[in-house]
Specification:
The chain is mainly alpha-helical. The strands form 2 sheets. A 4-stranded antiparallel β-sheet has the order 1-3-4-2, sandwiched between helices.
Length: about 475
């Protein structure tokens, strides 16, 4: 009855069954283990075989047939390559005779599936991917937008814009291969193999591109176009694959926003949040010199829905930083308030802020910045004017803050420019004594308008001069 015990029992049975084949091991698949745990009450594992000739088919096809369609575990040899065996988890206890009958029946079903896959593979090769582009006009992408042929043309325009930005930043990649991959990326939707195994779209396109001699760069980009499918997945390994993934996703998001199909609440029928998560993850974990603004601009050059899409991506960046990278919510709020366009830069600032936020001086500075923000808000409500600290003679405490901040500001700016955020934050924390003294001894909202304006101008300069890394007022202290 216990789920954990059943899972442990299945794993032990899989190990025991696999040991009967020299040097073999079952291919680890946590999700499939979880599935069979909940499909069975009294699990038994049997080892079956299939003809080695089917190993000529790509592993992706064989494993998908076994895993997704039959709930079988794949078996691999010591070299990590697929072996001609499978493991099935039964929901009953059987004797040896029963095992033989069930093994034979399962192998027969699997053989039929493999035979179909081989037929579809051979049949599909008669029509190369390039000859399938025109057929995409008959495959609907979205009824209000158009076909996958329209989608491909739109993706090409976005990919060219992204490629220009990346090329302008000096990143080397094969632009011709990228555009060929974008052109052919959706053609596998017209193949018989994808119609039979829809979960392999993209993967089949990549395998067919390789088999048809289109080159590994094109093939890898097509193969990985839908990765990452989740926040746990790896991003495409090539620049071409990353750009294809970005172009496809941002074009979809922008187009859907354009027809009013943005996600609302828990409803996201077109999986636009997942697409945006993919964009953020690719930008976070690749070396692409692209900002969120450049990605959005490539798909919405005329500004249509640009602000809405940009805000949507920032919301997904917030999710990525908190739920995927594990940063505290106030750190994320502080960092994004200071700028959310450069994803990798936001991560670097969050890491630096996390490292120093526990320090006593930094906590005090954060509290002081919150106080500054509140005072400036009150001043704005009362329509008090901001003046310059050089317009009047300041008190000693105010002068100390002015001198210290004037001295530190260019140093912090230089460190920020070099992305040495940790050093910059340590330097900012050294302001604590003069900030504390200022608030202890100075009446900021002085009755004298000139003095009040000078004080407000001074704290406004401090706030903006040192908030480029993060809005410290967002940090929760105490």
């Amino acid at each position: 009855v216990d789920v954990a015990e059943r899972g442990h029992s299945i794993r032990k049975a899989l190990d025991a069954a696999t040991r009967t084949v020299a040097g073999a091991r079952w291919r680890e698949d946590e999700a499939l283990v979880e599935t069979v745990v909940h499909l069975t009450e009294w699990p038994t594992v049997i080892l079956g075989d299939f003809e080695p000739e089917y190993l000529a088919l790509p592993e992706e096809v064989l494993v998908t047939v076994m895993r997704d369609h039959q709930k079988y575990f794949a078996v691999e040899g010591a070299d990590g390559k697929l072996a001609p065996h499978f493991l099935a988890v039964l929901n009953t206890q059987v004797d040896d005779e029963g095992r033989a009958i069930i093994r034979h029946g399962n192998a027969r079903v699997l053989r039929a599936r493999f035979k179909d896959a081989r037929f579809f593979w051979d049949f599909d090769q008669k029509t190369p991917l390039a000859a399938r582009v025109e057929s995409l006009k008959a495959v609907t992408f979205q009824k209000e937008l158009g076909s996958y042929h329209w989608k491909t043309e739109a993706n090409l325009a976005v990919a060219k814009a992204l490629a220009a930005s990346v090329k302008g930043a000096g990143v080397a990649f094969d632009e011709a291969a990228l555009l060929k991959a974008v052109e052919l990326a959706k053609t596998d939707l017209t193949t018989e193999l994808v119609k039979e195994f829809t979960e392999l779209q993209g993967v089949i396109g990549g395998l067919y591109a390789e088999a048809q001699g289109l080159g590994s760069t094109v093939a890898k980009a097509i193969y990985a176009q839908y990765t990452p499918a989740s926040t746990d997945d790896a991003i495409p390994e090539t620049v071409e694959g990353q750009l294809l993934g970005l172009a496809d996703r941002i074009q979809t998001i922008t187009a859907m926003f354009g027809i009013g199909a943005a996600p609302t609440g828990s409803k996201d029928p077109f999986a636009l949040r997942r697409a945006a998560n993919g964009i953020v993850k690719i930008l976070a974990e690749s070396g692409l010199p692209l900002t969120l603004g450049e990605v959005v601009g490539a798909a919405a050059p005329n500004g249509a829905n640009r602000e809405l899409v940009a805000a949507f991506l920032v919301e997904r960046l917030n999710f990525y930083l908190k739920d995927v990278r594990g940063f505290a919510y106030d750190v994320v709020s502080a960092v994004l308030a200071a700028g959310a366009d450069d994803v990798r830069d936001a991560i670097a600032r969050a890491e630096a802020l996390t490292a120093v936020r526990g320090g006593e001086d930094f906590a005090a500075i954060s509290a002081a910045f919150k106080r500054i923000k509140n005072i400036l808000r009150q001043a704005e409500e009362k329509k008090f004017a901001l003046g310059s600290a050089t317009d009047v003679k300041l008190s000693a405490a105010a002068q100390l803050l002015y001198d210290a901040s004037s001295d530190l500001a260019p140093k912090v700016a230089k460190l920020r420019e070099g992305r040495a955020y940790g050093e910059a934050l340590v330097l900012i924390a050294t302001l604590r004594p003069v900030v504390d003294a200022f608030f202890d001894k100075v009446m900021v909202l002085d009755p004298d308008a000139a003095l009040r304006g000078a004080h407000l101008g001074l704290i406004d300069e401090v706030l903006h001069g040192f908030s480029g890394i993060a809005d410290f007022s967002e940090i929760v202290t105490g």
